[in-house]
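Lecture 7, part B: from sequences to assemblies.

Below are the input chains for today's worked example.
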Amino acid sequence: MLPYPNRTRSFLLSGLLLLLLLPPVSSFFGDAYLVSMFSRLLIYALAAASLDLIIGYGGMVSLGHAAFFGIGAYVVGILAWHSYASVPLLTWPLTLEGSESVLIVFPAAVLVSALFAAIIGFFSLRTRGMHFIMITLAFAQMLFFFFVSLEGYGGEDGLSLYARNQLSGVDLGDDTQFYYFCLGFLLLFLYLSQRLVNSRFGQVIQGIRENERRMLALGFPTFRYKLACFVIAGAGAGLAGALIANQSEYVSPGLMHWTRSGEILVMVLLGGLGTLFGPVLGAVVLLLMEEILASFTQYPMVLMGPFLILVVLFARGGLYELLIGRRKPGE
Amino acid sequence: MYLLIEQLLNGLQLGVTLFLMSAGLTLVFGIMRVINLAHGSFYMIGAYVAATVAGYTGSFLLGLLAALPVAALVGMLVERLILRRLYRRDHLDQVLATFGLILFFNELTRMIWGRQPLYMNIPDWLSGTIELIPGAPYPLYRLAVIGMGIGVGFFLYLLFARTRLGMQIRAGASNREMVAALGVNIRILYTLVFGLGTLLAGLAGVMAGPILAVEAGMGEGIMILTFVVIVIGGIGSLRGALTAALLVGMVDTLGRAYLSVLFRLFLPAATADGAGASIASMSVYLLMAVVLVWRPRGLFPPPGGVQ
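Predicted structure of the full complex, as structure tokens:
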């Protein structure tokens, strides 16, 4: 266990316990929908935690994070499509077949989204502040329109999967097993990210957030550090995308629409910037609120919009600060 | 040849609409240093109010006259209640608050007007076509949009270059503390500029009403194009907004019309159409990426700089 103060540790442990116990409890009450819904929540939590790496720790406000989420999902969709159709993805210069195996599809999704993050980051990180927000938004829209016009893979309607990906020894088609699969990835990503932000690399990234010019003067190649951080976050979002494609067994350009980027951003801020666990909480709370609001009103966003504005105006530290207290430096 | 002229005019018309949108937004960016994602909502509000009033009274002009003050007033109210508290905050907070505003306004229009789009008629005196060049008829209404845009551009030029208010706004853009210290009520100035911006967005919405369907979320597509315009032009620069709006309007329109034709010269027809369509829809974003790599602060970065 990492060196956390008691209060924080007990919150995190009880949260973990709740998530671990969710499937048996919900099956006891005969409510199978809850498990499937919480798989979705965990996946968005992973996407939000990855965005927190660049926004909360790196200070780079990206409004195009859903691009990598969508890319990860499309890798799953496209590989599965080629596997069903038995048409190779590439024949030259090397033959690439489609696949439905987790061991091939997931690394591919992470690598491809990391590659896209490297390209987009390389151009975007030349700018900062307002320009950075706009250019990440523009790149994400560019990819959105690209996939909309990609008629071969369903265009605007997207692609349906016939089944979830396969992994020997695990039946991902089973909602409970898939839930633990998602939870496992989320915990792994949180653990690695926690190690990362407390490492020398993470300290440099936070130093750049506070004062880039000074870090540059101290001899750190800040552009490379920021790019590396951007790529890691993109890879995390790609992983989440691969999971969401499996969860809903469907991919569409809607996954990378700019409102999706906005939604993930809301999760991060609602949960608490630069806390990693806060965005997880933010994702769970936001999506649960949407579910609950949608169940009793046809127009949930009329309440959700003002709620977000109130959070921005009055609860700046997010839920993390409300529950656990202000994050101290070095914690 | 006639087709080319028609497409050029279409590009000009899109450019003019984008200019109406981006003029207000670039001022808000440049002077208040605030990101307003909800600018497209005022475009939508303008279109809805105009379509409703025009529907009841049968008069396009009454619709226009009703929409402009509503867009301006709602804008000033939003500035007064929400954005004013966010000027000194991080851009992230501004993004989120205005994102909340978009969700709110979109859903509110759905509540009031329903999920079905509204349609607006072109007024009789602007319907029909006119032959600018013999043999090339062009819709009169679209020409009127272009004319209106040029008129607004000229008005803004006079406002900023020739009046005391314009001078104060320009001064506020380059150094707000100094302007406040010289006794200008910067708060009222900010509210007025914001209202002017949302009024122009509302005007753009009214003008687009008879051409497009009036529906919830209609402002988002054009809002993102507006961002592209502002970033290409240089955040805070009116001259940049004008140049970039025309550039983006032309690139988008001509790309959609001619890229697949161009690709057919050296690709099989089906591939050429697909590639042409997908590159056309990405063309303005490509343009923006190229401009930013070449000049990271846009074509006409205003003095003083905006972060």
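Note for the exam: The CA atoms of residues 186 and 276 of chain B lie 49 Å apart. Keep this in mind when comparing with the next example.
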